[in-house]
Design goal:
The protein has 187 residues and is mainly α. It has a single domain, classed as Four Helix Bundle (Hemerythrin (Met), subunit A) (Up-down Bundle), CATH 1.20.120. Helices cover 79% and strands 0% of the residues. It has 6 helices and no strands.
Amino acid sequence: MDFRAAVRDHTLGTAAVLSTAAVALVFAAALRVVPAEALPRAPSVIIDAIPHVNAAVSAVAFVLIIVGVRAIRDGNIDRHRKLMGSAFGLFVVFLVGYLYRVALIGPTEFPGSGLIETVYFAILGIHITLAVLSVPLLFYTLLLAWSHPVSEIPATNHRKVGKVAAPLWAISFALGVVVYLMVYVVG
């Protein structure tokens, strides 16, 4: 059996394994499971640029998701696939940069206090919750799309799950940009 067929036959399990691994990597980085000294250290200018690059990546990914949803509503399957695949690629770029920076220096602290800090933590909490909820939905829908011919996708849960995954994913990216603005502009 080839790999694609195996994924097609075990899409839910594959999505569960990938989701667990992704979330475990995030928590491992945040909890600094791997000592920072064990990681190669990029120049400070690169490490300092990661949040800014990630904010731009998030903004572009948000737009790609919205345009990708419109493409499928218009019946443009090829464009939808390209846009959603590109958004997922940007998600991977974001995650690699985020995990690397957090593993090296830990999470960024919010510089404000009082009401603005309360608002920040509320937005951050929603952003994190949506991001964690999005991961298994994304893996599932993307694996369905990847492992099935286009003609078979309507018979899968791709559309039903995608209708939940896309808005959660888009909102998570948008709130990530808000978190960035609160830390680096407002705070």
